[in-house]
Amino acid sequence: MSFALLSSILIDGVTYAMILFMITVGLSMTMGLMRVVNLAHGAFAMLGGFLAASIPQRLGVPIGLGFVLAIAVVALLAVIFERTLLRRFYRRDDLDQMLVTIGLMFVATAAVNLMFGSSVTSVALPEAFIGSVDLGFRSIPRHRLIVVACGLLVVVVLWLAVDRSSFGIRVRAAVDNAPIARAIGIDTTKIYAATFAIGAALAALGGIAGAEMLPMEPTYASKYLVILLAVVAVGGNGNLFGSFFAALLLGIVETSMKYMVPQLASAAFFLTMIVVLLFRPQGLFGRQA
Amino acid sequence: MSAVIPPMAMAAASRTHPWKHLRAEIVLTLAGLLAFVLFPQDLGLLTNMATVSIFALSLSLVLGQAGIATLGQAALYGTGAYVAGWTALYLTADPVVGLLLGGLGGGLIALLSGAVMLRSTNLTLVMLTIAVAQLLLELANWARWLTGGDDGLAGFEVAPLFGIWEFNFMGHTGYFYALGALVLVYFLVRNLVESPFGLTARAIRQDPGRVQALGGRVYLHLLAVYTIGGVVAGLAGALTAQTSKVANLFMLDFTTSAGVVVMIVLGGTRRLSGAVLGTVAYMTIHHIASTLNPYHWLFVIGSMLIFVLIVLPEGLVGLLDRAAAYARRLGGKEGTR
Amino acid sequence: MPASDPRYLEKKMTLKLVAALAVSLATLALQSRADVIKVGVIAPMSGPFSVVGQTWEGATKAYQKLNGTTAGGHTIEVIYRDLPDINPAQAKALAQELIIKEGAQYIAGLYFTPDTLAVAALAQEAKVPVVIFNASTSSLLERSDYLLRTSYTLPQMAVPVAKYALEKNVKNVVSLVSDFGPGLDAEKAFNTAFVAGGGKLLEAIRAPLKTTDFGPLMQRVKALKPDALYVFGPGGPATYAMIKAYNEAGLKAAGVRFLGTGETDEDQLRAIGPELLGIETGMFYSATHNSPLNNAAVKALAEVAPKAIPTVQLANAYDGLHVIYHMVKATDGKRDGPKALAAAKGFSWESPRGPVKIDPASREFVQNVYMRVVEKDSSGRFVNREFRTFEMQPDYGRIQGAAK
To answer: Does A33 fall in a domain?
Structure first.
């Protein structure tokens, strides 16, 4: 394998993995924390992308600010959804939770279709992100490097937040044993809402950052649902590094196949998932059920 | 809980009124005949309702009764369709042979994949079922020479049913073929569910650990249920292929699996009748919504799903139960049931 | 005997069969005596391909605006039924409903091949003419004697592009297609014609249909250093990604010509815009085709359906309805499948796309194929400017297949 090919696989694979990580980390956290399977998670990424595509134009604000606003709006929508709808399903069984979130996904898809039409919508990037960087053996689009940097930043920030901050301690307490956490005064309701909102915001960020590789269209949420769930399952629920490494593993496997035998790329992705799940059903870093 | 009580009540009823045992099947047959008389020009839609109902029954058995979380049932449905197509193309155009072989095909794939997957539970299991279905889809796409790829498998003839009734464009034979199959399959599955086998399956859904402790072989039992579910799904796929004369990749798709799950939720997951009710309701609403304004179907189905889950967790069957209980209270005839 | 007993069913069935048959036939007879001829169009009105359904609906309305709603004294009513995705069972049910319930004399539309296959089987039995507005697999027309098509096939488009490439001194080429029916058709047709003309095929890459990141594939193309890259994408996000990847990999700067087919369709031009500049494609219709008829059709479309985009689907549906009008006139509004088809065979007319003809033997649709390049017009819009015409191209899929 030539150096050029290997480095290409690494660069593209890591970029893809970072996007997957950013979108799925919120889902993993939600599932680990609240034990809720939110199949509409992809919709948050989708909404983020579509809002980022339209807010700068509609409100006439600079693109960077538009991105921030898009993420904020998605976080707000997530909190509203969690408070009004999702909350009722915490005690219901897994299937019912999955189904109500599928219902939400349908509604989100229909809403996006209505507001933005059914074709692909491109997200305009700020000037600084456009263009390529020439590395000699190949050129990389500048924004891919930024995506990688973004992903790494998210990992670091989340790790500090979860491992080091008092918020993180409370989140982990609530994950480990919710009744006891409540007994010692941790407000699990606020924690759930906050975690859900952060997860959605990260998904929106991932959607915006990844809009070049995963283009924005109304069927985005359902199209990538299976891939998102795969990353979460392989990584293990509720585990930050699990999500990170699962994304890296699956992303690099699929990308390397794309370079070498493109027709088997998708199959390789699923085979990897199956192999991991058969040997470690709780995921790479998950805890035994 | 209520699913455990009827068998005993049924057993008591059969001594005095044997036909009460077949209540569900009789209602189904009469409803099917009534539909034929009332909507003779919508047979295409009605035939599809019948075939998809059988598919829904397989999922009701696997998911509703035994609690096996699956979003990949379409793999077995699609397999049945392709096997029926190949039978018609290379073996014999006799529909019943194709139907049975399709069922066997579905059962075989279910057995093979279930053997590997059923050691896992919950999310892992769901993901595995999705992955298996996806792999099967990729395989079918790759084997163009065998499956026709994304163009689909077509050009096969379907011989007259039992050598007598021709399948023609008016759709009568197709409809009764599908309806007959539905009633028969319903009868068989219902008996299975009401037998000790079915009881064990429900017990496993509610508490696998306890069943294990009582000496039951959970894994084998689930595998058996999953395989039977595969046979039923295969039958449904074969019927679809035979009545539309095409088998195609979309029948293996994740969206197809998800669609049927939505249907049984609408109808009520815990009861077999919910599968048929949910399918009919879903497809009827889709048909009407499509004709009125096709652009907003996803809104309708999404909202309906959320509505049913919050307001009617037991599905339409639950609604009917409540209505029947209310009527009985008003009538005041039978005391215990 | 229990209700599931076949003998019981048989008795009920025979009676109901006779009754229903009588009712249906009576209804059919009634409707064909009336002066309204219904055309049932099965189209994706909802879902990811709803743009197509919208354009078809707009196109048929535009046709009726320009040509009136009657043909030979009979009123033509176009009704639509939604089929958002690939579902042959549903396609068949819709066709059955249109023929039996609505009494449609003609079926039209059909975007996907599997759906068309299901309807073809029905058409053959019912002897109802079906005009395909899109499904482009070559072998489809062989499935029934009652199928016609007013769209295109991939080989029909690919071969002229290969000829153009040879004209422009392209010595070697890499082909990159999406791994599905039309893509494979395009790959085979282009490569066969290109190699037969003395060119060299460096590699034939097939991308899985769901691919949205063409970065790796474009890098591979770059490494092979061809003179040109022949592409077929399925439209939507994949094409968008393909074009972006082509530009980002610097292939244009490296002198690799991009030769495509339908990638620059008018809705893509609007969605993607500047990245498409300079791309050359071979296709059968451009909204800026400069003929009085086309200008009138595009204008009429904008009036009756302001949201619809004048893509190739405009030409497809417009011509499809034109053929139906012709068949209605030929059969004097009566239900006569064989007579209608006989009239359609050999029929030639001026379409918004240029001159077209239905081949009398194979029923294939013969039309001009234009080489176009994406430019900005005077009002700043992105358009496909036609600069070279390959006249009256047949379906090469048939020809290349027969030569084997």
So the answer is: yes
